[in-house]
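Page 37, continued from 36.
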């Protein structure tokens, strides 16, 4: 009977550690979700700024006239 009691206590100990580990992992997932959301927001801001920029005054390679020695 003491063997069964020891096994039960061992299982309870393992369960307690697993619950702690699950909670720690959950907190890490929450932190990473916040980080990803923040980074997505920053990317959207950068995309908006890039789209708002005026095009360059430089001509494209196709629009450039070749130098006179050609």
């Amino acid at each position: 009977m003491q063997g069964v009691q020891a096994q039960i206590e061992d299982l309870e100990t393992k369960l307690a550690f697993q619950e702690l580990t699950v909670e720690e992992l959950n907190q890490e997932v929450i932190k990473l979700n916040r980080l990803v959301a923040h980074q997505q927001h920053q990317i959207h801001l950068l995309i908006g700024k890039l789209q708002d920029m005026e095009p360059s005054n430089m001509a494209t390679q196709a629009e450039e006239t070749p130098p006179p020695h050609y």
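The chain has a mean pLDDT of 89. Flag for discussion at group meeting. The chain has one helix and no strands.
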